[in-house]
Write a structure and sequence with these properties.
Layout lengths: L6 H11 L6 H10 L6 H14 L4 H21 L9 E2 L2 E2 L1 H5 L1 H19 L7 H14 L4 H10 L5 H26 L4 H25 L14 H19 L8 H11 L4
Antiparallel strand pairs: 1-2
Length: 270
């Protein structure tokens, strides 16, 4: 891949699609969507689409924006007093503290609705795109991210398997959506899609392990409930090694960007 898709490209796309209505809810949506995110998930999707399909088409752009809207809505709701009751997100006041709980709930709802609006603007005659749309909403719904949130809120982390399942769904499923949807936008084969999905599973869990290590003081449920810090670091390394190995199973594509993300995750400090 000659050049990776930039954060600036994603920011420009998001601003293009954000509703122009600037009432309190619209302001809360914009505040949360542009509060310093790394755009990690849409960048994974777009760069995967480019690696597989040799270009980034409009379908991939719409899915990338939709995915970031879904991720942002989930964080707004996750920060609410009824859930994590967080005061800061990326170093700034959380949406509900800035605009009030009612506006924050509606802003989250608005971003989820915007995600649906965006995907319906794509070329639905493309069977790969239809599969990608279905997969994205499956992995963000009750069979995916929402299930992970439910486990995180209501289930006890008594074993390694429990922690792994929470991580797979709460964090991993949107990363799975990013890689699989990107691969489908590039018209990857079924066997290739399976490998991209496996890459994402390992990467997603590794990402959550590192998150737990970074948030050791505030995490109520985490891998640190069932593993020592050293074991967590070893597990994150094992998962990362698996990501690198799986990338090498697709030598027809330049997946260095995935390898870079995976190895950089191990040294994250925020």
């Amino acid at each position: 891949m000659k050049s990776k898709i930039s954060v600036e490209f994603v920011e420009e796309m998001l601003r293009k699609h954000l509703p122009q209505q600037k009432d309190k809810v619209g302001q809360a949506m914009e505040y949360s969507l542009f509060n310093g995110g790394k755009r990690f998930r849409p960048l994974l999707l777009l760069n995967t689409a480019k690696a597989v399909g040799k270009r980034v088409n409009e379908n991939a752009c719409l899915l990338a924006c939709a995915l970031e809207c879904i991720h942002t809505y989930s964080m707004i709701h996750d920060d609410l007093p009824a859930m994590d009751n967080d005061e800061l997100r990326r170093g700034v006041r959380t949406c509900h503290l800035q605009y009030g709980e009612a506006a924050a709930i509606l802003a989250g709802d608005g971003l989820l609705n915007l995600a649906m609006e965006l995907v319906f603007k794509g070329k639905m005659e493309d069977k790969y795109y239809r599969r990608a749309c279905a997969y994205m909403f499956e992995k963000s719904g009750q069979n995916g991210m929402l299930y992970g949130q439910c486990l995180d809120l209501f289930a006890e982390t008594k074993s390694f398997e429990d922690a792994n399942e929470v991580a797979l769904h709460k964090t991993g499923d949107l990363i799975r959506a990013a890689l699989v949807c990107g691969a489908l936008c590039g018209h990857a084969t079924d066997d290739e899609v399976k490998i991209f999905d496996e890459i994402a599973v390992n990467f997603g869990i590794a990402y959550q392990v590192v998150d737990d290590l970074l948030d050791a003081q505030k995490c109520e449920k985490s891998f640190l409930d069932v593993m020592t810090e050293r074991e967590c670091r070893q597990y994150a390394q094992q998962l990362t090694d698996k990501v690198l190995s799986l990338c090498d199973q697709l030598p027809q594509y330049d997946l260095q960007f995935i390898k870079d993300y995976a190895t950089q995750n191990l040294s994250r400090n925020h």
